[in-house]
Amino acid sequence: MSTETLRMPGTAFTRGHVHAVAGCYFVASFAALGLPPYLTEILPELGDRHARWAGVLYVVPTVFGALGAPLWGRLADRYGRKRLLLRAQLGLAVAFLLAGWADSLATFTVALVLQGILGGTFAASNGYLGAALQGAALSKALTLMQGSARAALVVAPIVVGSLSGSLSPHRQYALLAVLPLAAALLLAALPEPEPAVRESENARETTAALEPPVLSLKALYALEFAFVFSTVISFPYLIALVDDRLPGTSPTLSGVLFALPHLCYLVSALAVHSAFHNRPRTGLALGFACIALGLAGHGVAGSLPTLIAVRLLLGAGLTLGLVCLSVLAADCAKGRAPGGMFGSLEFFSKAGAVAAGLAAAAGSA
Fold it and tell me: Does CATH number 3.40.50.300 belong to domain 6-211?
């Protein structure tokens, strides 16, 4: 990422600030991303012996997060992006503490609802960055934020699993509440962002800023929904697919196969950004094509090499799509209140994830 600095009143918003925001999202999302795979172990402790509610509770934070994201985004534009970002981190801490100390299924469900309503750290972080950055600097920051999310998806379940021998996943919610609290303390030291103004402006830059976006906002929302739907639909039953096609596969290998697309993003996202930041629609079309081929390949893959190949193909599509959507989102953010825009974008992203989960469940019924 470039070291370009944007002028802000009394301070400079630099690459270090961007990394701090992404790092805080990474640590704060550990419980949110690492513990849901262990719901089948948590729920029997709360009276649901056969974990029948696991599928429903898995999407509860996503549903309520989607419903709350646009409102929190508009409030951020009105009352301050930093203030609402701190609120999101502290809201996660409260929800995790309640989940960790819940002694009934009802209380645990309330905690997951609060996690969705009070959280929203991803949209809040993007809104904060969108208020301080623009153009290529913003799209790179959004690409880094997606990398933070991918890294958490890979690392968090491993950390939770390694701690499970000494502390149950249920009680780990309370322990991991420390992470969003620590993130809030770090974020408190960051500046309140102001509209980004480049130190060297000229007539060409001013004219470019007034140009209409490459994509309309409605089209961006529709593409976000479709892309998230197409990538998430394979998540819920991948482990079962691996067990069916490759009997006797170790949990470690299954986990690696699950993580491959996200690792692909971490390795290649910045290179893809450099290659496609001037032609994001082309990159997004290629991304959808790779995902379609990858999903089709899952249906016929019957050996470890072919499964690895289709997972890498899916990873290529994931990387192309997420990076190019970040470029398009940064372009749409010009001249718009970033909190409301990124809050609405998060709504469509989470709606796509919920729809994919429901479709996957219906397809397996």
Answer: no
